[in-house]
Amino acid sequence: MVLDDLGSSLRDTMDTLRGKSRLDEADVEEVVREIQRSLLSADVDVGLVMELSDSIETRALEEEPPGGTTARDHVLKIVYEEMVGLIGESTELPLQEQTILLAGLQGSGKTTSAAKMAWWFSKKGLRPAVIQTDTFRPGAYDQAKQMTEDAEVQFYGDPDADDPVQIARDGLEATSDAEVHIVDTAGRHALEDDLIAEIEEIDSVVDPDRSLLVLDAAIGQGAKDQAQRFEESIGIDGVVITKLDGTAKGGGALTAVNETGSSIAFLGTGETVQDIERFEPNGFISRLLGMGDLKQLSERV
Amino acid sequence: RAKAFATGKVIIEEEDLQEPLRDLEFALLGSDVEMTVAEEILDTVREKMLGEARAQIETTDQLVTEALHDALLEVISVGQFDFEERIAAADKPVTVVFTGVNGVGKTTTIAKLSEWLEDRGYSSVLANGDTYRAGANEQIGEHADALGRKLIAHDKGGDPAAVIYDGVEYADANDIDVVLGDTAGRLHTSNDLMAQLEKIDRVVEPDLTLFVDESVAGQDAVRRATEFNDAAEIDGVVLSKADADSSGGAAISIAYVTGKPVLFLGTGQEYDDLVQFDPEALVDELLGEE
Ligand SMILES: Nc1nc2c(ncn2[C@@H]2O[C@H](COP(=O)(O)OP(=O)(O)OP(=O)(O)O)[C@@H](O)[C@H]2O)c(=O)[nH]1
Ligand SMILES: Nc1nc2c(ncn2[C@@H]2O[C@H](COP(=O)(O)OP(=O)(O)OP(=O)(O)O)[C@@H](O)[C@H]2O)c(=O)[nH]1
Ligand SMILES: [Mg+2]
Ligand SMILES: [Mg+2]
Predict the structure, then answer these.
(1) Contact B212/B109 with Cβ under 8 angstroms?
(2) Contact at 8 Å (CB) between A263 and A211?
(3) Fewest Cβ atoms nearer than 10 Å: which of A26, A300, B4, B124?
(4) What are the average pLDDT values for consecutive 10-residue runs of chain B, which has 290 residues?
(5) Residue B290's pLDDT is what?
(6) What residue of B is the nearest CA neighbor of A110?
(7) Measured from the CB, is residue A139 less than 6 Å from ligand 2?
(8) Stated pTM of the model
């Protein structure tokens, strides 16, 4: 996902720095341009890319590299720290009773992710239930029902009801013996005021411990406005990035994390209920920057 | 040069172009035009402008923006054809197959297009080639009921090519004008599913293959459009969810790499939220010239 290319292009640029003990402005400019290109081609928001690269540039030029560090290690450390600063830790998900509300654009992967997350919690020994409140999309009830059957978890939905808020209320009651409640919602986007008002109502009835924004890894620059609107309306505690089994880099999720002040919770990597991974920032960043254990490097420097 | 000077004109040099082109590059990237596509379009603009004379009253910025407008319009107007005329002229039944990655709006677009055709006097049958995803039959089935159309579907796990083929036979036997064949969403990285798509294309031999993508898509749009076009050659593009995002750079990227026209925009979740694509309007929006 994001940073994959950043890794390889950085490696190439960094090679030109090999053996240098000091960086001149031209070196830094070149590295920064590479970083910009990689982040932009990963769909990170243009404004955020500029902020990040300005900050990397300023630090690389102004901070004195600690004694004995090569110029290359110095820049790497700065890049690593800036990325960690942005991505932060994985969204905290204590293995205890909780209610999770899913929100996001049409087709982003909410229903699939609801079943996947339920499967994930059940593997952790908890009893999850999925509540389908989507009364709009044809077949939404059947889709969620079949997927929760695949995941072998409890399901609540009502194909004949037409009020999502009422379904949420009834569903929580009907599944009260479950430990983890995952509430799926219909797709909506930032410009649909009536649907945003609807999810605010669902939010107030469900009173979730966590609201997660489900984002397609391929979303482009629109991620910023979408994330902002969902943050304003229901408050976003974490992001689920779906369809990472494709070639999209998921930079929109970085934008969303930045915009909502949240973090990444899960990664979706396929269409079946087992295709879910918990997000692991450390190994993740080093792996994707492709430069061995950056954390160690950062601590050593 | 002397001549330009004498007529009060200035020759545009490389360094005059650097700033405005860089600004435009960021503007294009900010509108989701894919990076290499943006670069190539800007190269065309650069080549066109270099050595051109401009009157002293014009700024290089203005001229570059005008040149970009023309370059974008050229890209996005590629291969445009009148969809209704194509349907009218073709032997019936006309088979249209919809392809694209997961969740972009294929099934919904089929329902909308069925209504669009009905409004123009063409009957259609829906054939559900998505025999894979949970709830796929129920979803398209509800659309068919709501629209009063016949749906051809097999059980989950069946052969998608066979379903669409059945749709064609049904249309043949019942004098239906158009067969709208759905396919399961798939990512271009899945070799099996892309091979299955090739098979559908080979067996069904559709008259038209429409590639559906969403207007909120970013840089990846180029990659998947290319790979879908390679697996089952596309004739046109539908860009859904235009109501969620107005920048539309994905349209430029897809038209540029496939050379295939964008035909329709999806503008919402209702059946009448389908509009014929207007290249000029998109370029104006991209360049902020409402
Ligand atoms: N390859 C792949 N496909 C996925 C992934 N997550 C979801 N999908 C597919 O994406 C499509 C949309 O997923 P849904 O779960 O229906 O999305 P949604 O957000 O619930 O959609 P709406 O309810 O219509 O807004 C389906 O075809 C899913 O199978 C993933 O991680 N990888
Ligand atoms: N806002 C908006 N939503 C749309 C549009 N077109 C489709 N959708 C929604 O996007 C979601 C996915 O649409 P589908 O038609 O199921 O997409 P698909 O490509 O068939 O999905 P898979 O079969 O799972 O790959 C649904 O919630 C649709 O209502 C559109 O033009 N605007
Ligand atoms: Mg759903
Ligand atoms: Mg579909």
Answers:
(1) yes
(2) no
(3) A26
(4) 62 90 93 96 93 82 91 96 97 98 98 98 98 98 98 97 98 98 98 97 98 97 98 98 89 98 98 97 82
(5) 44
(6) B103
(7) no
(8) 0.95
Return mean pLDDT, chain A.
90
State which amino acid sits at residue A241.
Answer: I
Residues of B in contact with A147 (CB under 8 A): 134-135
Residue A291 pLDDT grade (very low, low, confident, very high; cuts 50, 70, 90): low
Q: Which of A83, A89, A122, A104 is nearest to A251 (CA)?
A: A83
- Tokens encoding A1: 């996902």
Q: With contact defined as beta carbons under 8 Å apart, do A101 and A184 qualify?
A: no
For residue B217, give the DSSP letter. B
Q: If contacts are CB pairs under 8 Å, which of residues 218-247 in chain B contact chain A?
A: 218-221, 223-224, 241, 243-245, 247
SS3 A260: helix
B6-52: pLDDT as tens digits: 567 788 888 989 999 999 999 999 999 999 999 999 999 999 998 88
The answer to whether B24 contacts chain A (CB < 8 Å) is no
For ligand 1, which residues put their CB under 6 angstroms from it?
A 104, 106-112, 134, 137, 140, 186-187, 214, 242-243, 245, 268-271, 275; B 102-103, 133, 185, 187
* Residues with Cβ within 8 Å of residue B126, at least 6 apart in sequence: B110, B111, B114, B140, B143, B144, B149, B150, B151, B152, B167, B180, B182
Residue B39: count of CB within 10 angstroms of its CB: 15
Write the pLDDT tens digit of every residue in A50-93.
999 999 999 999 988 877 788 888 888 888 888 888 888 999 99
Q: Which string of DSSP letters, residue by residue, matches B162-198?
A: HHHHHHHHHHHHHT-SEEEEEE----TT-HHHHHHHH
